[in-house]
From TrEMBL:
PANTHER family: DIAMINOPIMELATE DECARBOXYLASE (PTHR43727), GROUP IV DECARBOXYLASE (PTHR43727:SF2). This is Diaminopimelate decarboxylase. Belongs to the Orn/Lys/Arg decarboxylase class-II family. LysA subfamily. One of its GO terms (biological process) is lysine biosynthetic process via diaminopimelate. It comes from Magnetospirillum molischianum DSM 120. The gene is lysA. Residues 35-281 form the Orn/DAP/Arg decarboxylase 2 N-terminal domain. One of its GO terms (molecular function) is pyridoxal phosphate binding. Pyridoxal 5'-phosphate binds at residues 241, 275-278, 375.
């Protein structure tokens, strides 16, 4: 578990024990390791450089938008890939320079595009013709020339979960392959836009190099055609998607990934931009939870914990696997028995694991959900009126709360009880 390891029988995050943090902030909480995030960034940056690539790593903030996480990466030189005005504002607030920010997404609104232009970000990845026209209009009104990439849909199967595959022609993302030349021609002709890049992202949690290679080879041909059409392509945005092991998967290493980029695209004279999310933060985070009680059902034993599907949605949404470990190291003699590990939310889907072998536990014991640093807190909700859980960052032998748990008063503070006689509106 990287910088999460047992020391004298107790689980530590770097130099801080998990029970120490739990005593301070209560459970459930997310815990991130600074050293793991830094190591993943450095390994990827060094792999890209060793492959001879001039590359910028733009962290996909959607994976973990915590300001302290974004700042840790931006201090190492990372840029940011954002998909909403909220993420753009977070990246700027965390200190990412605007010239290292790229804006992706199929549904950017007029206001979001205007804010991106005003912020002076590096590149906007356009995903449709209407968006191109809107961006040109806004850029012209602002008296600006905007560097754009067209996100293309290469119709390549990423061989990942259907809900997170993005590069097939039936997916909503990108410009369909057969229309790409035409759309670049429109972009060239529009005022306020400078098409300088091609963008492509075929999906998330890829565990094979083949689909990346297939997409990169398609991009290679495309760049040559676009250049012959008169578009000066100087930058390639290759998206993110490199997977991490959750349950024994063996995704390509950063070196193999960088090698595939260099082999297929390295001689085109383009700078490269990658948008990893999960790779940088996935196994840099744990969700720590307490056992509320152990309940014996008709056919199985349920370990009911105080974390739920609203805190970590991946098992309910994608049937995703997260390893679950006790915070006290189990001794080799203790036999693990299959249990269902469930949360308190009123849905059967609020199940983290079915018939998972676990050493015997009792109320009050701490359990951790591994590999929860990406798309964990990021996707949390307050379903069942459960306040969002705190996030804690460890750095060496120190820890800090980097997101506080709201009080119940704060959680309900945005609701309103209207006085129907006065402060309401009419309308047809
Ligand atoms: C455009 C874009 N870039 C980057 C990412 C980050 O993906 P991952 O976390 O799999 O690296 C995503 C999410 O799949 C995305 O949609
Ligand atoms: N939320 C997904 C990843 C989505 C990637 C977004 N482009 C997951 O947890 O696996």
């Amino acid at each position: 578990m990287n910088h999460f390891d047992y020391q004298d029988g107790v689980l530590f995050a770097e130099g801080v024990s998990i029970p120490r943090i739990a005593a301070d902030v209560g459970t459930p909480f997310y815990c991130y390791s600074t050293a793991t995030i830094e190591r993943h960034y450095t390994v990827l940056a060094e792999s890209l450089a060793a492959a001879g690539l001039k590359a910028t790593i733009c962290f996909a903030c959607k994976a973990n938008p915590n300001l302290a996480v974004i700042r840790t990466l931006s201090r190492l030189g990372a840029g940011a890939d954002v998909v909403s005005e909220g993420e753009l504002r977070r990246a700027l607030a965390a200190g990412v320079p605007a010239e290292r920010i790229v804006f992706s997404g199929v549904g950017k609104t007029r206001d979001e595009l205007a804010f991106a232009i005003e912020s002076g970000i590096m590149q906007i990845n356009v995903e449709s013709e209407p968006e191109l026209l809107m961006l040109s209009e806004l850029a012209t009104a602002a008296g600006r020339e905007i560097e754009v990439a067209i996100r293309v849909n290469p119709d390549v199967d990423a061989n990942t979960h259907a809900k997170i595959t993005t590069g097939k022609k039936e997916n909503k993302f990108g410009i369909e392959w057969t229309r790409v030349r035409e759309v670049y021609a429109i972009a060239r002709a529009l005022p306020g836009l400078v098409p300088v890049a091609v963008a492509c992202h075929i999906g998330s949690q890829l565990t094979e190099i083949g689909p990346f290679r297939e997409a990169f080879l398609r991009l290679r041909d495309l760049v040559q055609v676009l250049r012959s059409d008169g578009t000066d392509i100087r930058r390639l945005d290759l998206g993110g998607g490199l997977g991490v092991p959750y349950d024994g998967e063996t995704p390509p290493s950063p070196a193999a990934y960088a090698g595939a980029i260099a082999e297929t695209l390295g001689d085109l004279g383009c700078s490269v931009l990658v948008e990893p999310g999960r790779l940088l933060v996935g196994n840099a985070g744990l969700l720590v939870s307490s056992v509320v009680r152990v309940k014996t059902g008709a056919t199985r034993t349920f370990v009911v914990v105080d974390a739920a599907m609203n805190d970590l949605m991946r098992p309910a949404l994608y049937d995703a696997y997260h390893a679950i470990h006790p915070v006290t190291e189990p001794s080799a003699e203790v036999e693990a028995v299959p249990v269902d590990i469930v949360g308190p939310v009123c849905e059967t889907g609020d199940t983290f694991a079915r018939q998972r072998p676990l050493p015997p536990v009792q109320a009050g014991d701490l359990l951790v959900f591994a590999t929860a640093g990406a798309y964990g807190a990021a996707m949390a909700s307050t379903y069942n009126s459960r306040p969002l859980v705190p996030e804690v960052m460890v750095n060496g032998n120190r820890f800090a709360v980097v997101r506080v748990r709201p009080s119940y008063e704060e959680m309900i503070a945005f609701d309103r009880l209207p006085d129907w006689q006065s402060d309401t509106k009419t309308g047809q």
